[in-house]
FtsX-like permease family protein
Amino acid sequence: MNLGIRAILYSARKWKKTLLVFFLLLAITTLVLSGLAIADAQEEQAEEVRGTTGASFTVERNLSTGGWSNGSGGSYSTQEFISEDMIKEIASVDGIAGYDASLIVHEDFFNEDGEALKTERYGFYSYGSYNSEYNAMFLSGRFELVEGSHITEDMENGLIISRDLADWNGLEIGDTLTGIYYPESNTPAVNMEIVGIFDIVADKDDAVNLYDNASYFDYSNYTFCSMEAAEGLLEGWGDENEGISEAYFYVSDAAQLDSVIEEVQKISSVNWNNFNITTNDEVYQNISSALSDTGTLITTLIVVITAVSMVLIILILSMSIRSRKRETGILLAVGIAKPAVILQYVLETLLIAVVAFPLAYLSSKQVAGTLGTLFGKVAENVIVTPEHFMLVAIVGGVLLVAAVLVSSISTMRLKPKQILSQME
C-alpha cells in the first residue's frame, strides 16, 4: 500500500490523536504569527519614534577656557560668543533638521497702558530665538506650546509667554507688550506681539531642572522673543558680556545623533576648545528604552512558546510512535525500509500541519490585534502578513520533521525482531 495512503488512513483511524496535534499546532502557530505581527508593529513604532521624537544637541560657551573681566555689572567671562555664521555652518551639516539660539535678555515688560506686568516672582528670563520650537525648553518637554505659534526667523517682534503670565495679566494672542532691557538707563523700548502661549510641563523643583543657568528664575517668567527683538533691546547698551551663549540643533533621526555630532566637531572654522556640546535626547532614550524592553519581551515569548511547543509535540509523537511498535515491526519485517516508515510518520504530521497552518493564519488575523493591545499597540497596526505566514510555515515544517525524527530514534534504532520481541 502506498505510504501516502497509509498516512491518511492512520490519521483518520487515530482521529483523537490527530485532533490533539491539530489543535496544538493551531494554537502554537496562531500565537507565533501574532507575536511576529506585534514585533513588526513594535519595529514600526520604534522607527516612528526616531522620526517624530528626534533629539538635539546644544552648543554653548566653554567658560572654563575663557578669561574673566570686570564691568559695570560685575565680573563676566571674556570667552567668545557663538556667531551667526557659526550657527549657519553647523546647521548645514547633513541630518540637522532645524536650529535655534539663545540671546539671553532680562528685560521688564509693560502692557499697552504702560503698567508693569504682574508676576509671582520678580524678573523675566527671556530667550532671543530664531526658531523657538527647537529651543531646549520645548525639545526637552519642559514647556509645551498650547496656543498660537512658535517664533520663526521671519518674525520681527514675536513673543511667547507662559499661561500663568497671561492669566495674571489678562493677556491673549495678538496683544502687544513693550520690553525694556534697562529702564533706568533709557535703553530702547521694543514693542512685541504675543504670538504663542506655553504651559509648564516640568516640575521646577525636580533636581533634573535645578542646575541650568536660570534656575533661580520662575518658569512662569520665562519668555521667548524674536532674535531681532532681543537685539533691539540690547542696542546701544554696549555691554561686552551680551551675545548668543547657546545654540540648539535638532536632529530628525535620534539614532543618528552621535554621528551628526561627530561631523559637527570636524568643522575646522570653529575653535572647539571654546565651546561645549551636550546631547538632549532624554525623551527619545526613555521611549526607546521602553520600546526595546517590550521588543525583548515579545521575542522572548515567541522563543519560549516555540520551545515549549516543540517539547510537547515531541512527547506526543514519541508516545504515539512507541504505541505503534507492533505496526512498525511488521512493516520492517515485510521489507519496508526504515526511511520509508519514518517518511510515513512525517507525512502524517505534515498532513495535519497543512490544515492547521492556513487556519492559524486566518485566526491570527483576528487574534493579533487583541494581543497587541496588551503590549500597548493599536490593534489596527498589528497586521499578520503573508510573509509572516511563509516564514512560520517553512520554519514550522522543518521543526515538525525534526520532531518526528527525534521521536523515532528510540524505536528505529532497534531491529524488527527486537521490536516484535518487546510486544506482549
